[in-house]
Amino acid sequence: MKKIVISLGGSILIQSPESNTIKAYVPALRAIARNHRLFVVVGGGDMARRYITVVRDIGIDEGTSDEIGILLTRLNATLLIAALGDDAYPKVAETHSEAKKFAETGKIVVMGGITPGQTTDAVAAVLAERVGASVFINVTSVDGIYSEDPKKNKNAKHFTAMTPKELLGIVGGTALVAGSNNVLDIVAARVVERSHIPLVVLDGRDSKNISRAILTGVYHGTVVSESMENPLPL
Ligand code: UTP
Q1: Is 68 inside a domain boundary?
Q2: What is the pLDDT of residues 45-102, one digit of tens each?
Q3: Residue 99 lies in a domain
Q4: In a domain, 26, yes or no
Q5: Which of 88, 89, 92, 114 is deepest in the core (most CB within 10 A)?
Q6: Cα(199)–Cα(85) distance, rounded to whole angstroms?
Q7: How far is the CA of 73 from the centre of ligand 1 (A)?
Q8: For residues 68 and 51, is the Cβ–Cβ distance under 8 A?
Q9: What whole-number distance in Å separates Cα of residue 207 and Cα of residue 96?
Q10: How many domains does the chain have?
């Protein structure tokens, strides 16, 4: 069994409590977990950003905004665990060590955020390192990495493959503030570079893309690794 770490953005799984794709994701995640050891790190989505805006408007510091963001990611993680039922370990892992321990049960392990100053992408990148994952998958609302935000610039260039250094060149200039919205945070990009674990960025707006990518290797996205070779299927 190969180990897979998926960073599942809140904007994909739980746009808002009323508008979520949890029911669609449960069968996709179960299908992957039948063949592989699966770790899922859940983001905070729009609710986290809304809370962060409120906290900032009150004039509270960025670190506290981050702490509130972390609580929202853990709330979303709790919701996913409940939806996965017996297939998931029943508690949100609050540290990487805890995640490793929970994985000994063979269940899907779910985490949210852990520490201020980063996003759940960084949590997932370090988790991939800690568990020796075969691949780190970042599920987002665009079909891979572009030279610029494709939602803002229609002429942005899509990359099918790139090296970790090239990734750092793209995300290096972005600000690290609570609730910021980049394809991958800089901490995660640095960990990807040092871990030598291939990263695949793909579009998760359709939940079937994820299981199809992992189990058949068919997807449209971006591979980030030194060799730039497609690490999927597993
Ligand atoms: P997310 O990981 O959800 O950020 O964390 P995101 O990039 O906006 O991801 P999407 O939209 O869900 O895909 C939400 C916020 O929680 C705080 C940060 O402020 C982050 O912006 N956070 C999260 C931390 O401070 N530390 C963590 O480990 C995780």
Answers
A1: yes
A2: 999 999 999 999 999 999 999 999 999 999 999 999 999 999 999 999 999 999 999 9
A3: yes
A4: yes
A5: 88
A6: 28
A7: 7
A8: yes
A9: 25
A10: 1
Cα(234)–Cα(2) distance, integer angstroms? 7
63 within domain boundaries: yes
8 Å CB contact between 30 and 207: no
Atom of ligand 1 nearest to the CA of 65: 19
Residues 156, 148 contacting (CB under 8 angstroms) = yes
The pTM is what? Answer: 0.95
Alpha carbon distance 111, 95 (integer Å): 8
CA–CA distance, 185 with 77 (Å, rounded to integer): 20
CATH code of 50's domain: 3.40.1160.10
Q: What's the CA-to-centroid distance between 113 and ligand 1, angstroms?
A: 7
